[in-house]
Predict the 3D structure of the following.
Amino acid sequence: MSGTDDVEVVSTGLREARAAGWDDYVSRHPDGTGYHHLAWLESIASAYGHRPWCLVALSPGGNLSGVMPICEFRVPLLGARWVSLPYCDLGGPLASSQTAETALRDRAQELVQQRGGKGLQLRLPGAVVEGHEEEALAKVSMLCDLPETSEALFSNYKPKLRSQIRKAEKNGLRAEVQSGPEAIRQFYRVFAINMHRLGSPVHSLRWFLDLQAAFGDRMKVGLVFLDDRVVGAGVVLVNGVRASIPWASTLAEYNRLAPNMLLYWALLADVTDAGCRVFDFGRSTPGEGTYRFKKQWGARPHELRWLDMTPDGRPSPETVSSGQAGRLRATVESLWQRMPLSVANLLGPPVRKYISL
């Protein structure tokens, strides 16, 4: 327990945080995301065994004035790194005042010092990036404002984008937005193949099923079909008026049919008509292909402020150069791509458990 200027911060379990009104607070906060929901921490604990911590800030009257989800992310032989939040782009404290935010961050640092660990990483949102400012940033978050109806959204698109969406339909593709475990299993078959193609260890199916069980109808699954085969799939998390898409994949041999265009349109149309007013396309590198893809839908780049701090709260020094990290990643990706798919799917989840990105 700690506090700053009459704001008290307590560490609670998932059940106590839910009873205190955590998810309702997150759904109303302007910076709240689906990742801040207790369902994200709950799934991390159930699927991967990393310990969740729920920091709750209370005003003198006992009212909720801030929350901070944090994960004690322990890696064998390497120790712990505290992350808010792993497996996604954003986390950090949500607060009603600067005082409450400071108290939450102070309490997080206390936990690192008390329980041990190499430091704390906060994945914080930033302001919109104007002009050529984005060129100096390694990664940005791509956000798009949504109108009141999908009809208005479609009419706002440039003719080329509307034509690409229609092209997918003319190519015989159809899209549905579903929820539930079976939709997750259909998504996962495409996702696992795509991750292998990219040379990246895949999340476990249990991770996605646990997320679906925890999020319920707030987790939407977009599926693109060619006849009866799913050739594209994506997952969207809804929080209040904000929708975020952490994962989307297509089967490479069908990309000539433009399944990605129909997938994103189906999801964007669905959440717009459901009342969402912001769509978070996720993290991108300025200038690269995914960045340009997201920008054509009207997304604008926003800064991602990922802060790495030592246990005593100082900025953490860089230990590996970007060049070294890039070469290592390229080597691992190449080796992973050469594995048989069945082997990659078997080995992927135990490895992915310890990769916080």
User: Anything to note?
Assistant: The longest strand covers residues 64-75.
